[in-house]
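hey so i finally got around to running the thing on that chain from the lab meeting. sorry it took forever, my laptop kept dying and i had to restart like 3 times. anyway pasting the input first so we r on the same page abt which one it is
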Amino acid sequence: MRILCTNDDGIHAPGLKALEAIARQLSDDVIVVAPETDQSGVSHSLSLNDPLRLREISERHYAVKGTPTDCVIMAMRSILADRKPDLILSGVNRGQNVAEDVSYSGTIAAAIEGTMLGVRSIALSQAYGPGGRNKVKFQTAEHHGPGIVRKLLEMEWPRHSLVNVNFPDCEPDDVVATVATNQGLRDQAFLKIDEREDGRGNPYYWIAFAKTDFTPGHGTDLWAIRSKRISITPLKLDYTDEPTLTQFAQVFR
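ok and heres what got predicted. didnt touch it at all, straight out
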């Protein structure tokens, strides 16, 4: 089995090393193609106005000056054009990708692109807590990841679906369970604009996140991560709201 590893945190991200360790427990044929720099939050964007620059970091390790989506396309259409991968793993992202994160995440987008190009794709993310971005427990993803990927590969899932896996912020032995979940929905009151001034008194702004007292819905990815469970959420490319489509069809015909 040939496995393509990518991410959105960049070619030197510690989560990518954890992902490669997961992949190498599944196969000896592993290739890494990841962004040259951090591309967190770029979603499913393409580089259409700038050329893509490819740099070979070491044997089977490539950096692309572009987005995670660019990386998957470069791998599929150029680097691995002679023999395409059988599986794409994206991650391990530094921070959870749950609820609305799915719309923003470059990690998820790489798995979406892989799915669009006909390859089974799995996104993996490791939540972190009060310790911050520099104290992420990637060992939890690395410990549990291979077994989860093996189980997923033993299953059949629809051709236009991908899988979003999130690991909780706890040590490997403290994980309570692995559960199938729905995509959650946050209280958007947590989103705010942080206004500041530079040294010359000119205003500038950061998108920021306020702490809110929010209880996630039971059975969602948000609930799973908060309760020390590994979340497995199937996602699909077709965004169509089927019940509303039926309603609209009664009017627009």
